[in-house]
Amino acid sequence: MILNQLAKSFHIARKDIRAYYLKPPLITWGLMFPAVIILAMYLKDPQGIQRIAPGLIAMTLLFGNTSMAAIVVTFEKRIGALERLLLAPVSRPALIGGKVMSAAAFGLLTSTIISIGYIVIFKHMPLRPGLLALTLLLGSVLFASLGTFISLAVKEVFEAMTVCNYVRFPLIFVSGVFTSIKVLPRPLLPIAYISPLSYAVDGVRQSFAGEGGIFPIYLDLILLALYGCLFFVLAVWGLKRRIQKEY
Amino acid sequence: MTSVGKEEWAIVVSGLTKHYGEVVAVDEVSFKVPQGEIFALLGPNGAGKTTTIRMLVGLSCPTAGDAQVAGFGIGADLVRLKETVGVVPETSNLYEELTLLQNLIFMAELYGVPRGERRGRAERLLAEFGLLDMRETIFRNLSRGFKRRLTIAAALIHSPQVLFLDEPTLGLDVMAARNLREMIRELNRDGTTVFLTTHNIPEAEALANRVGIIVKGRLIALESPEALRLKAQAATIIELNLERLPEPVIEDFSALPFVSQAYKEGDSRLRVVLEEVTSPAREAPAGPAGIYEVIQLAQSKGLRIRSLSTIRPTLEDAFVQLTGVEAEVMRMDKVSSPGARPGSSGGGD
């Protein structure tokens, strides 16, 4: 039964990738946005790029995954295609699993391409490439779940984007993307520790530097996984609530 | 299937009720649909047809009551229930960006059709529905009629025991609607139980073995179209084709003592239902003498009669008599209103 539902998640994810994610505008957006920011940062401060690039890669995960999940789910809700999935013999966790899987695959792909581009162009090899891959994977699932959860709480694509931005921009500010958490004002520290992006940034940074993170690496990975599970469960609950409200 | 005595029931509904806050969308509806039947739920917009279907296919949770579809309770194992039914929603909501073939194969995947059979079944259905030449066409580029066909094909990919169709011909041109009705008949001939909702009275009459009439959430009649017509035949209906028909005078006709109902049909036709049996309590006679009274009233109101005829009651007449909802209202319903109900984004009723 579980394997059967898992297979359906996979089919949903593959359909989403085929129908939405492989479109040139989305791929371009997913790659251009972070690439331009990294290049802009390099032009501003060539020496500081190694310090800031890990944060930007983590930020790519946050933006790419939340946006794509939110757009796709909200769009399908609006045109009635989500109802098609609700009518099918697919459990709610399997449906959300499919949505998260496709958005996470897109985020993982774009962040991997950006990471490889960065490594090749700036000749900055990660000292722990396996850790980088694991951090990107966990971060993708986490932020795809977050985007899916947000999209189920709103009706329109623009609302999803607005809510996403309310969440994303403060997170970027407090999660050590541009400046280390260590230099944050004391009152902001609790928010930095709550922010899942802090652990993604720290994980990517430690993957390149090999050490010197704010948190122990195992803590980064565990918290990324736990946050991923939390937002996944919240998204499943959000779907249940949405069905009760609409039907 | 639920077996009761010798009969096998495809659908058993018992006291099904749905509230949206204060609004009662479906009110203690009970009925049974035997296996192999075409059952039509007929009613105006907002009657509770779509809500009933949504509960029966496990999309919406009833406030009270219970139902079994193909032997599965709607409150129990929803995944199993959904595996045995096919649903054609009011909107043709397949995936706009996928081709026809990709859409059907995706549906086959969702419904657990074995991998080796998916493509074959999809192509067979495309051929049956006259869409094989268009299999690589993107769904978005299809006409409304073809979209509807594919949506029905998608609902059949797993060979469901029961097929639910919500307003199947809504928005289709005459030819496409006719073709679709023929397809529904063929599916039924092949053994599929068909449950459809419609606000289109001739459609229910043409397709269904039995018709349930639902108004304001309540099931007020459940008979074969013929039996419903016979109910209406207990009365004589005369139709006056007038030069013009001001709305207020309809009430004057309704007020005649031997008239049970008067209603507008089309722009300038008036249908008057005369009671067949002359009651001693009533002074005016029904039948031919009643016709004379009707003509006199029309003349006294200055209405010019182009023609007059007695008509054989149709299901439409039976519907009007039973519900008080005018057929014209039914025809306009889905055209003028998408049928939103509280909390709905979909436009059902």
* Helical/strand content category of chain A: mainly alpha
Termini gap of chain A: 26 Å
**What is the domain total for the residues of chain A?**
1
| Spans of at least 5 consecutive residues with low confidence of chain B | 277-286, 336-348
Number of strands of chain A: 0
- State mean pLDDT of chain A (0 to 100 scale): 91
General shape of chain B: elongated
Helix content of chain B: 25-40%
Strand content of chain B: 25-35%
Please give the radius of gyration of chain B in angstroms: 23 Å
Mean pLDDT of chain B: 84
The largest contact between protein chains, plus residue counts on each side, is:
A-B, 30 and 31 residues
End-to-end CA span of chain B: 28 Å
Structure, briefly:
The complex is a heterodimer of chains A (about 250) and B (about 350). By secondary structure, chain A is an all-alpha fold.
Task: Provide an overview of this structure.
- The complex is a heterodimer of chains A (247) and B (349).
- With 247 residues, chain A is an all-alpha fold.
- Chain A has one domain.
- Chain A has ten helices and no strands.
- Chain A has helices spanning 2-21, 24-44, 49-79, 81-87, 92-122, 129-153, 157-174, 189-194, 196-209, 217-246.
- In chain A, helix 6 packs antiparallel against helix 9.
- Chain A is globular, with a radius of gyration of 18 Å.
- Chain A starts with a helix and ends with a helix.
- Chain B has helices at 49-56, 78-84, 100-110, 115-128, 144-155, 174-189, 201-207, 225-233, 247-254, 288-300, 315-323, 327-336; strands at 2-4, 7-20, 23-34, 38-42, 64-69, 72-73, 85-88, 162-166, 193-198, 210-215, 218-223, 235-242, 259-265, 269-275, 305-311.
- Chain B starts with a strand and ends in a 13-residue tail after the last helix.
- In chain B, the strands form three sheets. Chain B has a six-stranded mixed beta sheet with strand order 7-8-9-4-10-11, sandwiched between helices. In chain B, strands 1, 2, 3, 5 and 6 form a five-stranded antiparallel beta sheet that branches.
- Chain B is of the alpha/beta class.
- In chain B, helix 3 packs across helix 4 (115-128) and helix 8 (225-233) packs across helix 11.
- The A-B interface holds A 4, 7-8, 11-12, 15, 18-20, 23, 77-81, 83-91, 155, 243-247 and B 54, 57, 59-61, 78-83, 87, 89, 91, 93-98, 102, 106-107, 109-112, 343-346.
